[in-house]
């Protein structure tokens, strides 16, 4: 224990001391003179000691933020290329959203839905008009939004699709919820608590099939036929399809095919747009890329403008009214503070044309990233994305012992904050207000890391340590990533 604490402290001091690329002063002009008790190192130590190790953060402490810039307690400035997983699409501390928060906080913050308040009805009308659905069910976090949509799907299955309750609750039943693509739900839905439902995580299903029939690459027709096979009504009574991309862009026609199959077999299509929605991919919803209208849409993250958790489930009356008073709810869902912030957050996205901006800047950014790929064709396997929802996937063989996390540490040392996904992918999803020059700074920094830092890192980490080093958290020594 003592040894791992010492090595943690050594690592932290190295990381904190090495990071000295400053870009500007914090907006409020302080933060430079951090005392030992407010230093990055002390705060990281505190969190490590007193908080569960359920995350593996890049060691940077956010102390102030504005737009797409972050300052740590020492006053170092960084560019944010994560946007809190799309929660700050509008940029950090957007003045209009902050004003909505402050004004409402002085008037009324909570009524609970035991009573009415004067902001939620206005928000409900606003969001349903904006997305063209009859009704909204407000929640707080995205996880709650997903849970709500699944509950709604089950109720709809019993009531509207007329799945017999005994059949749906028998362990042999085949009512199935399909979670399509690589998604976040695995983290939120504990299958142990869902004995009555079969969850098929699509990407895993594909992997199983690939293993069985020896295919090594995905291709659309194959996915389509599996989809058709999985949801044929003789096999299943009900299927709910959710998708939420982890920067996996479905092939053209995928969403439309899902929509068509759902309509054909009376299946509820649920789109988890918590991360991809609200302008992130260059449209208000990612489904808009194929003019697909899901039966249920889940929104979250940027709905709260990065200020307060707000999530919402949108559906038409025939689905939404399956839930009756007392069957589902949340003390904080639809609270006046969240409602007012959400109205402002939606208005900012619309009025600042963030969807168009994301589309346009995304193309520019990918162009720059592709140039980096051309310079390092062996290292970068793929650059992919839509709008400002992008990822760079590295070639695990040529990356050798170095992981995406290691690359993110180097990016951070050079002033760019990004997050690894799995062992070989770096997500690049900046706030949608980021300037063209700042995006350029991001791609230039990636180039510098690959040119200057990567060779040194590869030398420092011996090849034979590869699978172990890249799967172990440098801080807590827990296994963080899958083995290669
Ligand atoms: C697609 C998707 N759905 C749901 C969630 C859960 O959202 P929250 O963390 O607000 O509970 C996430 C979080 O990253 C997500 O990416």
UniProtKB/TrEMBL annotation:
<dbReference type="GO" id="GO:0005737">
    <property type="term" value="C:cytoplasm"/>
</dbReference>
<dbReference type="GO" id="GO:0055129">
    <property type="term" value="P:L-proline biosynthetic process"/>
</dbReference>
<dbReference type="GO" id="GO:0030170">
    <property type="term" value="F:pyridoxal phosphate binding"/>
</dbReference>
<dbReference type="GO" id="GO:0019544">
    <property type="term" value="P:L-arginine catabolic process to L-glutamate"/>
</dbReference>
<keyword id="KW-1133">Transmembrane helix</keyword>
<dbReference type="InterPro" id="IPR049704">
    <property type="entry name" value="Aminotrans_3_PPA_site"/>
</dbReference>
<keyword id="KW-0032">Aminotransferase</keyword>
<feature type="transmembrane region" description="Helical">
    <location>
        <begin position="197"/>
        <end position="217"/>
    </location>
</feature>
<comment type="similarity">
    <text>Belongs to the class-III pyridoxal-phosphate-dependent aminotransferase family.</text>
</comment>
<dbReference type="InterPro" id="IPR050103">
    <property type="entry name" value="Class-III_PLP-dep_AT"/>
</dbReference>
<comment type="pathway">
    <text>Amino-acid biosynthesis; L-proline biosynthesis; L-glutamate 5-semialdehyde from L-ornithine: step 1/1.</text>
</comment>
<keyword id="KW-0812">Transmembrane</keyword>
<keyword id="KW-0808">Transferase</keyword>
<dbReference type="GO" id="GO:0042802">
    <property type="term" value="F:identical protein binding"/>
</dbReference>
<dbReference type="InterPro" id="IPR015424">
    <property type="entry name" value="PyrdxlP-dep_Trfase"/>
</dbReference>
<dbReference type="GO" id="GO:0010121">
    <property type="term" value="P:L-arginine catabolic process to proline via ornithine"/>
</dbReference>
<dbReference type="InterPro" id="IPR015422">
    <property type="entry name" value="PyrdxlP-dep_Trfase_small"/>
</dbReference>
<dbReference type="GO" id="GO:0004587">
    <property type="term" value="F:ornithine aminotransferase activity"/>
</dbReference>
<dbReference type="InterPro" id="IPR015421">
    <property type="entry name" value="PyrdxlP-dep_Trfase_major"/>
</dbReference>
<dbReference type="InterPro" id="IPR005814">
    <property type="entry name" value="Aminotrans_3"/>
</dbReference>
<dbReference type="Pfam" id="PF00202">
    <property type="entry name" value="Aminotran_3"/>
</dbReference>
<keyword id="KW-0472">Membrane</keyword>
<dbReference type="InterPro" id="IPR010164">
    <property type="entry name" value="Orn_aminotrans"/>
</dbReference>
<keyword id="KW-0663">Pyridoxal phosphate</keyword>
<protein>
    <recommendedName>
        <fullName>ornithine aminotransferase</fullName>
        <ecNumber>2.6.1.13</ecNumber>
    </recommendedName>
</protein>
